[in-house]
């Protein structure tokens, strides 16, 4: 197989996604795509996540016209309600209270866009998370320590948030953090990029 040397760009401003991509040891830049992330009328959450992942990659492609561009987006669902990034303490508390003792499904969409050929590889990687029964005191202590206000579902699984979780089921454990690396490596290999 011919190994390509290509510029790889992550279409994201997320520090979590940047840390994940660094695990692969690739020379990978990052550009914030600055797109409207509002769901379209009548659009389902999985479709929204996929559309946004593609839109992020295509937006960055306007600057990086020959690069391989990685776009990703995540939607969390509990009882058919979407959980976004809480932004502040009270909203995070309400999210964790709603998730207590229940199962939430995180849909992480990823796409690899070849800006030169306009070929797009896309996938949705679901992760099911069952939370422990959480007391109000536990939620307050957790939020004061981890401050996960920029995380859909209000818990950082890669940090203290793991203590709130009873069970996680996924084919790609990094999907929950926001970038499914197993899936991404498969896509990169299909595009001719050697990892490692």
Task: Report on this structure.
This protein has 196 residues and is α/β, with parallel strands linked by helices. It has a single domain (8-190), classed as Maf protein (Alpha-Beta Complex). Helix content is 29%, strand content 26%. It contains 5 helices and 7 strands, in the order βαβαββαββαβα. Strands 1, 2, 3, 4, 5, 6 and 7 form a 7-stranded mixed β-sheet that branches. Strand 5 and strand 6 (119-131) form a beta hairpin. Helix 3 (89-99) packs across helix 4. The chain is elongated. The mean pLDDT is 94.
Short description:
The chain has 196 residues and is of the alpha/beta class. The chain is 29% helix and 26% strand.
Write the layout of secondary structure elements.
Elements (H helix, E strand, L loop, with lengths): L7 E3 L4 H8 L5 E3 L14 H17 L6 E11 L2 E3 L5 H11 L3 E12 L4 E13 L4 H11 L18 E6 L10 H10 L6
Helix pairs in contact: 3-4
Rg from Cα? 17 Å
CATH domain topology: Maf protein
Specify the helix fraction band: 25-40%
What is the level 1 CATH name?
Alpha Beta
Number of domains: 1
Could you list the spans in which at least 5 consecutive residues all have pLDDT below 50? none
Strands, total number? 7
> Average pLDDT value?
94
Q: Into which percentage range does the β-strand content fall? A: 25-35%
SSE order:
EHEHEEHEEHEH
Biggest sheet, in brief?
7 strands, mixed
CATH architecture classification: Alpha-Beta Complex
How many distinct helices? Answer: 5
Oligomeric state of shown chains: single chain
